[in-house]
Amino acid sequence: MAESLAGRTALVTGAGRGIGRAIAIGLAQAGADVLVTARSADEVAYTVAAIEAAAPGAGKASMMTADIADNRQRQQVIDAGLARGRVDVLINNAATVEPLGASAAIWAGDLRQAFEVNVIAPAVLAAAVVPGMVAAGWGRIVNVSSESGSLASMDAGTPAYSVTKAALNALTRILAAELRPDGILVNAVCPGWVATDMGGPGGRPVADGAASVLWAVDLPDDGPTGGFFRDGQPLPW
Predict the structure, then answer these.
(1) Core vs surface per residue 168-199: b (16+ CB within 10 A) or e
(2) Residues 199 and 237: beta-carbon distance below 8 Å
(3) In this predicted model, what pLDDT tens digit does every residue of 27-73 receive, in sequence order?
(4) Are 90 and 129 in contact, with CB atoms under 8 Å apart?
(5) I want to staple 20 with a disulfide (CB 3.0 to 4.6 A). Which of 26, 93, 128, 215 is the partner?
């Protein structure tokens, strides 16, 4: 990242592995104090250790085990972030996806869970951290989305995931429009098909997917907001 994040605090959800872990490491290397969250205590501990190894003398890392689909645990994450004064960078990375090939006949339960993780949690976290960003006149919110949520290319296979990622994209547009005058950039980023536990083997390297997300943090103050990108290039909605 070109811009230093020294003195800034970042919150990354779903940071216990894969893209989330790589994003957290990149933010710390840029100097940010990073709060990493995930459901697995072992995984977030590993991420903190990886940050300390990859960014010695740069940003700091702290951890919280939480399921952001749970209201109480979600509030604990918010409280931990705001205890640092404010959150300057919010990466809504945590996501859930049903098995590939799920049919419309059985997806209602998946849809409820997917909305909690993929849409409601990002909205609640953003609402909590925005006042501090507004007061500081600076902030970056990045919603990690997917081309599966693009109406232009949406298809069968993971209906709950696709519908909720489309909703996350809509949330991005609304937040960006509201916060544009306050120096806060809000963008959705598709990291592409990445070789992670969720994405499966055969995808692009994790570092490439994380770099796509970090690009949206590193934007200049007059950079784009309310967009949908991969590798810095616009994607069709």
Answers:
(1) bbebbbebbeebeeebbbbbbbbbbebbbeeb
(2) no
(3) 999 999 999 999 999 999 999 999 999 988 888 899 999 999 999 99
(4) yes
(5) 93
Confidence of residue 200 (pLDDT cuts 50, 70, 90): low
Class of the domain covering 9-234: alpha beta
Catalytic residue among 26, 145, 161, 216: 161
Q: Could you confirm whether 46 is annotated as catalytic?
A: no
The span from the CA of 188 to the CA of 236, in Å, is 12
- Per-residue pLDDT for 98 more than 90? no
Confidence class for position 212, pLDDT limits 50, 70, 90: very high
Q: Cβ(132)–Cβ(84) under 8 Å?
A: no
Residue partners of 30: CB distance under 8 A and separation at least 6: 1, 3, 4, 5, 6, 58, 59, 218
Spatial contact of 173 and 226, defined as CB atoms under 8 Å apart: yes
